[in-house]
Design brief:
The chain is an alpha+beta fold. The protein is about 35% helix and about 30% strand.
């Protein structure tokens, strides 16, 4: 199992959380198809007595196959990346991890 993540830093220009949460992330999950076993969207919150969060929003996509994930990006990457301009003025920080 693998987890792909994206996070948008605090101060992301014109970030539209509602679009990100209700349109972009679900679109990506739909394009991943049955390979995506779960996805979550997080809105960062300040923790009392702790440093501020480094991001305003993040999304996590759990997938079973790294190869299928790569195939989806190759096939739909232009559509996925072009949609970012609809809710953010910057590209996210992307992560890829093995779930253990």
């Amino acid at each position: 199992m693998f987890c792909a993540s994206v996070s948008y830093p605090v101060g992301a220009a014109d970030f539209d959380f509602d679009y990100f949460a209700t349109r972009h992330a679900p679109m990506f999950a739909r394009l991943l198809g049955s390979n995506c076993t779960r996805f979550e969207v997080h809105r960062a919150l300040a923790t009392p007595a702790a440093p501020p969060p480094p991001f305003v929003a993040a999304a996590y996509f759990w997938v079973g196959s790294a190869e299928e994930f790569g195939t989806t990006l190759a096939k739909h990457g232009d559509e996925i990346y072009a949609d970012i301009a609809n809710f953010s003025g910057i590209q996210p920080t992307r992560g890829w991890a093995e779930v253990v």
